Fold NHL repeat containing 4.
Amino acid sequence: NLQGPRYVSPAPNGGFVVSEECGDVKVFMSSRKLLCSLSSKYGHQFGNPAGICVDADGSILVADEQRRTVHLFPEHGAPICLVSAGLRRPTGVACSSFGHLFVADTGENSVK
């Protein structure tokens, strides 16, 4: 079911999330069955989804390398663009237990 898997992140429900190169982000249940694709569920078009993580609320965060953005996809509601400027090539994301977002920017050799 995957087209060029790139990054994987565990999800709070025992499942996991996978980004696909130049494609989509897919959410799987703990049984490894596909739950949904973010582009289908939210009507969102990715450029090149890269790093992904899931926060304490179960929201999925995605770094889009091509569009130079980071979006948050809540379990319910519309996607929210968290970062739309200041990134050259975001490739990784991580969430801390304190609510901080870390973005690895390969284009600037830095973590923001």
